[in-house]
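ESCALATION

Customer reports they have been waiting on this structure for their group meeting. Please prioritize. Original submission:
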Amino acid sequence: MNGLARSNPMRSPHLMTYSHDGYGLGHLRRTSNIAAHFIETAPESSVLMITGCASGPPFLLPAGIDFIKIPSLVKVKAGAYTSPTLRIDRPTVQAVRSAMIQCATREFQPDIFLVDHLAAGIDGELLPTLRMLKARDDRPSIVLGLRDILGEPAAIIAAWRKEKVYATLRQYYDEVLIYGCREIFDAALRYGISAEFPGKIRYCGYVRSEKPLRSPEQVRADLRLQKDQLVVVTGGGGRDAYPLLHSCLDAFGAWGGTLPFAAVLIAGPLMPPAQRDHLRRRARTMGVDLLTYVEDTPSLIQAADLIVTMAGYNSLCEILALGKRALVVPRPGPSAEQRMRTRIFQERGWIEALAPGAASAQALARTISALLERTDRPRITPALDTAGGARVAAELAARVRPRTTLPSALPVGAAASAAASEAALIFPWGRLPPHPRWAPHRSVALWRRGRGSRNILAARPA
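Update from on-call: job pushed to the front of the queue and completed.
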C-alpha cells in the first residue's frame, strides 16, 4: 500500500475531516482553514467536515464545504467529557457519535480522511471507521494533523501510551502532518512520534486563514471608532474567557471616566450568556464595545494597535503573521499547552506576557499603557512560517490519484463483525446499544444548516 488515495474518475476528489473541540473552537477553526485551502487547490473538490463543536462552525464556509454536527461532548477535566445538552447517558451519546461518523464516511467515500489531534477520536469513537476504511480494496489516505505544542511532553507521551495512540498510528495512518515549524518546537521528537511511527512525518508551517484583509480604515469605519488607538481583547471561543475580559474591564477603570483609546471586547460564541450579558452591561458604562463573535478576525487584528489575548494556537498565529503587538495571558491549565506556547514565543521576543496569577487589573493597566506608548513592531524571524494552510492542502491534494476501479464497500456482515470486535476498545463501559437503529448498515440523515447573510466583520448581538 503506497498511501495514495484513488479518486473516482467520474467525480471530483472528496476530503473528509474529523475534529473535536471539547472546550473551544481551535480545532474546528484550523480544520476549516485547511478545508478552504484544499478547495482552492482542487477547485472541483468537496470537503465534508465532522465536528462536535457545540455551535457548529460559527464562521462562513466557502462553496464546496459542508459539515455534519454530531452530538457535543464538553471536556470537564483531562480525558473526561460530558454532554452539555442531551439528557441521555454518556454511552448512548458516544454510540450515536460513532455511528454517525461511520455511516457518513461510508456514504461520502472520501479519498482522504484527515483527523485532527485525536488519532482514535474520543474514547476510540473513530476506530470502527478507521477499520472500515483500511479494509477497503481501494482505501483512502488516512492522515493525522497535529498542532505543534500539545502539552508537557512527558504527560502527552504517558497519555498516548495508555490510550494506545502510537499503536493506532502504526495500524491505520499513512502520514502525520505537524502544523508548526521544527525550528520552533520539534513536536515529532518531543512527543515520540518519530520514534514510534514509521510513516511519513511532515512539518507544514503554521495554519491560518490567509483570506484577503479589509483595510484598517474600513474596519475602524465599521466600528465607528473616534479615537486614534484601538485595543482588542479576545479569549478565543469564549468558554473560559470571562476572567480575562472581566479583568480587562477592571483595568480600563484605572483611566477614570474616559479611555484614551478605543476598546473592543470579543466574548466568543461559547461564552455562557449570563457572563456575556454581565460583561456587556459593564462595557456599556465605559464606552467599550462588546461583540459576541467576529467573522473576519484577521482584519480586526490588523486594525488594532494592541491585542490582549489568551495563548490559543489560532489567535497567536494570526497576530504574529500580521506582525501585531500582543499582550498574552495564557490559560492556566489543565494542560500546559498555552503556558508552553507563551514561554517559547516570549523568549523569541514576539509577544509580551503576564502569567495568569499575575494578570491583576493593576498589572494589566500598566502593561497596556506601556505597550501603547511603544512605536516599534515585533521582529518576527523567518523561522515563523505561516503558510501552513496552503502547504497542508497541497500535501493532501498530492495524495489523490485517479482510480482504476470503482470503490468496493466493506460488506455489511464484515462491517458488523469489525464493529463488534472493537466494542471493548470503543466503549469501555459496555457494548453498543442492541437496537436495530444502531446497526452498521443503517444510514444516518446528514443535516445541513441554512446560512443567512451576516456582516462580514462581526455578528453583533441584538
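Sent to customer with the following note: The chain is about 35% helix and 15% strand.
Escalation resolved.
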